[in-house]
Amino acid sequence: MNPFICRVPKSLSFGRQTDRSFYYSPNFSLNGQINTHLVSCVKFARHCNLVYFFQKSYSSLSNCSATMHGRKRAEYKERLRDPKTAAALAEKAEKWYALMTELSRRRDSESNETERSTTIALIEKALLVNPDPLQLWNYRRELLLLETEAKGDSEKILQNELALTKAALQRNPKAYGAWFHRKWILALLKPNKEILGSELKLTAQLFTMDERNFHCWNYRRFVVSALSNCWTGGWELPKMGAQIGGTLDCGVIPSDVLQSEWEFTQQKIQDNFSNFSAFHYRSQLLPRILAENEEKKQSDILEEEMQLVENAIFTEPDDQTAWWYHRLLLLEHKFEPSRLEDQAEMLRELLEDSPGKWVVLGLYEVLSSLSSCQDEQVHLLKRLIEMDSDRANRYHELLVNLETI
């Protein structure tokens, strides 16, 4: 068997090193159970970032646990003993290496318009196999900038890139490069509201596969920003943070879009109270929603939010997600003392049935907002010191501050 020779960064090296080429010994074996050729293929592919070819096979080389994602490691090992599987993996690794070599050669050489189109097609072929390598997305963007200058066919380029990134995300819904590239092409070509609306529908479809995919929530925020004619991902109020570039002042989000997003987050939260991304997005929408309503209506909205949190808390008291939003409401908005006293009583009752850390901390936060029941606050903090030793210093500091009042 001929050993593999490949060029990878020294930080990724293993085996015997000669300059920056690394030799994988054909004599390497793991307890004599795994085909040496396959082991070389798997290690080689791992450093080429071929996650989707070899993730399951490579996992069998680790003895960390007996299962992975609910499947026994014996199943993976059994697949590795199959000569057909080993041969197929080796063939895929060789094809990938050949494709990467060709792309590297093309990037180092001058290319005309015809070769540029061929290179873009080769990069697409590679990304459909594995959408993770960021350098491929970067190379593609360099070529696309040249294409837009030369041809100016922005509509065709937009549709091609949206189709490519959609296919890539279907293969790996959390591919950083694919999500960034999709935002980049939108910011570059600035499509109309009809296309942006279809992007919102796409995120809704992807949420059916993983409702807590933070990449998808991030992208949805970007699209909403674009609908307000802001292509950097920043909102004038509140600032959402740069999603793709520097922050700039942006226009007002259309009222119908704002209301639609508000209802969308509520539905996602009701579907799953553990959806932290939905709660976070809702926390950013809330000041906008309040600003569009008069004072009396604002009180009703805040009451509805508190009831939403209470439903989540009583459904799953040990889930941190709802408690985070609960604390945000207490810190950033004002509630009538009588309302908070009623909630404190409810939490005392809940504490009898669910004596977990989050219930204790939540009750302390409510009493702290009321600036009442200091003795009970002290008792709760001492209880937290025992329950949550990792954060004992924080509770000690709160306790000291409380006793000095």
Task: Note down, in words, how this protein is organized.
- The protein starts with a strand and ends with a helix.
- The chain has 405 residues and is mostly helical.
- It is globular.
- Strand 4 (67-68) and strand 5 form a beta hairpin.
- The chain is built from 18 helices and 5 strands.
Percent strand equals under 5%
End-to-end C-alpha gap: 77 Å
What is the tally of helical segments?
A: 18
Order of helices and strands: EEEHHEEHHHHHHHHHHHHHHHH
**Structural class designation:** mainly alpha
Mean pLDDT: 79
Q: Give, in spatial order, the strands making up the sheet with the most strands.
A: 1-3-2
**Major sheet details:** 3 strands, antiparallel
Question: Given the C-alpha coordinates, what overall shape results?
Answer: globular
List low-confidence stretches. Answer: 1-65, 234-249
Please compute the radius of gyration using only Cα atoms.
27 Å
Characteristics:
18 helices; two-stranded antiparallel sheet; mainly alpha; single chain; disordered N terminus; 5 strands; three-stranded antiparallel β-sheet; globular; 3% strand; 68% helix; 405 residues
Describe how the helices and strands are arranged:
Layout lengths: L4 E3 L8 E3 L2 E3 L12 H12 L3 H9 L7 E2 L2 E2 H8 L2 H26 L4 H17 L4 H17 L3 H18 L4 H14 L3 H15 L6 H14 L27 H17 L4 H16 L3 H21 L4 H13 L4 H17 L3 H14 L3 H14 L4 H12 L2
Antiparallel strand pairs: 1-3, 2-3, 4-5
Summary?
This protein has helices at residues 36-47, 51-59, 73-80, 83-108, 113-129, 134-150, 154-171, 176-189, 193-207, 214-227, 255-271, 276-291, 295-315, 320-332, 337-353, 357-370, 374-387, 392-403, and strands spanning 5-7, 16-18, 21-23, 67-68, 71-72. It is mostly helical and 405 residues long. The strands form two sheets. The protein has a three-stranded antiparallel β-sheet with strand order 1-3-2, with no helix packed on it. Strands 4-5 form a two-stranded antiparallel ribbon.
